[in-house]
Amino acid sequence: MLRYLPFLLVLALWIYAFIDCLNTPEEKVRGLPKVVWVIIILLFGEVLVGPIAWLAAGKVRHAPANGSTPSEWHRNHRVQYVAPDDNPEFLKSLKEENRNDEALLKDWEADLRRREEELRRRERGEDGAN
User: Fold this and answer.
1) How much is the CA Rg of the chain, to the nearest whole Å?
2) Neighbour-count burial of 45, counting CB atoms closer than 10 A to its CB (0-12 exposed, 13-18 middle, 19+ buried)
3) Beta-bridge mates of residue 29
4) Residues 69-96: what's their mean pLDDT?
5) Closest CA to 53 of 76, 21, 26
6) Which residues contact 101 (CB under 8 A, 6 or more apart)?
7) Within 13 Å, how many C-alpha atoms sit on residue 23's CB side?
8) Whole-angstrom Cα distance, residue 14 to residue 37?
9) How crowded is residue 81: how many other Cβ atoms within 10 Å of its Cβ?
10) What are 84-90's contacts with CB under 8 Å, separation 24+?
């Protein structure tokens, strides 16, 4: 199985470069027309010349919009996590949920009492009729 690994890696790079070239808009292709790049990738893909040439020189690469890489952005934008019992918004949401649950429970209890009373009335009415 390991003897096929180099072939699979070359094939994967070949396919990636081919699809990347096809999906790249014409105005972002540099050096040669897009059709020529596709032919170069297909003809010289087995020896990696075509895909590497495309990745190195064929496509216009831009720096990130704000001038920083994603890892730099994450280093500069750390999120301060707060434990749930120290977070006032979380505690407030718990209180609201408790109030909603208590109101729902009261509604259920009232409905249960109403149904029990209705059953008692039916039983008394049926027993009295017999």
Assistant:
1) 35
2) buried
3) 59
4) 78
5) 21
6) none
7) 6
8) 12
9) 7
10) none
DSSP H or E run through 76: helix 70-76
Among all chains, which residue has been given the structure tokens 């209705």?
118
* Start-end of H helices in the chain: 5-23, 34-43, 49-53, 70-76, 88-129
Residue 59: strand pairing partners: 29
* Dist. CA 129–CA 74, nearest whole Å: 79
Read off the pLDDT of residues 100-127 as tens digits, 9 standing for 90 and up.
Answer: 999 999 999 999 999 999 999 999 987 6
What is the 3-class SS of 112-125, one letter each residue?
Answer: HHHHHHHHHHHHHH
What dihedral angle (degrees, nearest 10) is formed by the CA atoms of 18, 24, 30, 34?
A: 60
Strands (E), the chain: none
